[in-house]
């Protein structure tokens, strides 16, 4: 049985939403990248192959059908109002984190203190905010891209700077999975540009690893936060040693 063109187009959007490339999908399906590209370009796919791709993406056929009707790309960024709602309710923010990372309700209730009605209520709020689509069995289908970004200068970024940054650096980075690198120096403008590009490559690699490990059970995954930053900066304690600049040049 052949799969409709609309379903295949919807599947392509879901792949983009999860940041998964044809090469990564081919590796998971044990196919060549060329064969996967041909399958999508010709829009020729069997129902069995579609089910295999669903397993890779941890989605159901009903989700693809809904996406084919919806016909919208996944959100790459939340709105100001959506971010404000999340930062004002820590439980809701946790629910989003768990939903984006494909936690099943049984795992959530086993590892967190939510009751089933409380968990359902949080999912309903996320659905009303337009961040997820709540499906039967309390399955949460994220409407964001898996690698979506917080708004620059938005509520979440401000919340992180004001409330979470101190918490993040409060404990020593001495565990097996920890890493803290404090580097400073003087670079040319071109050097700074190249360093920025390298940081962006690390971000892409982090996104790719998220996609690769998304189908593992919660017990096989560790929550990880990666903070990358670069800016022209001099420690405040050094500012008193600066020579005042001559206004006349």
From TrEMBL:
Q: What is the lineage of its organism?
A: Bacteria, Pseudomonadati, Pseudomonadota, Gammaproteobacteria, Lysobacterales
Which superkingdom does the taxonomy of this entry point to? Bacteria
Q: What residue stretches are annotated with the HTH cro/C1-type domain?
A: 11-64
Organism annotation: Lysobacter brunescens
- Name under which the protein is recorded: Helix-turn-helix domain-containing protein
Give the matching Pfam families: HTH_26
